[in-house]
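Quick one: structure tokens for this chain, please?
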Amino acid sequence: MNATDSAAGSAARQSSRELLVFTLGSEEYGIDILKVQEIRGYESVTRIARAPAFIKGVINLRGSIVPIVDMRLKFAQTEATYNPFTVVIILNILDRTVGIVVDGVSDVVDLTPEAIRPAPEFGAAVDTAYIHGLGAIGERMVIVVDIERLMSSEEMSLVDDAVRAQNNV
């Protein structure tokens, strides 16, 4: 390897995105690993009255009340069966902490911008507003989610309202 190859490789690594890959059923999704605070096993949550079904409830994470969103329900998949592989990914997004329940975490991958293809248009049948693109990793296809956009959406503001109501703030 010469200096030019090394510089090109370094530039490619700098522009690539590290994604945490998680599974929902047979599908794989990737989120920016810089948003991930920690990964925990699933534990029982405290339900919040009148919260949407995809909001499982809240947990007390070292003194902070953290809303928990079931991604399988959020993406209108079948209801999840929680098992020992079910995990909660704790995210730091837009100055708030949110947990997402997923079926499992598989790995961390680097994707260059060229490896991420735009999401196809499905018309009004499928909301692709939160899909950044589709990443090809060999034979695998990872759906790259714009998790910040998803969690900052209007329906997610319901999470903040529910947590405030829970805390009587």
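DSSP finds four helices and eleven strands in the chain.
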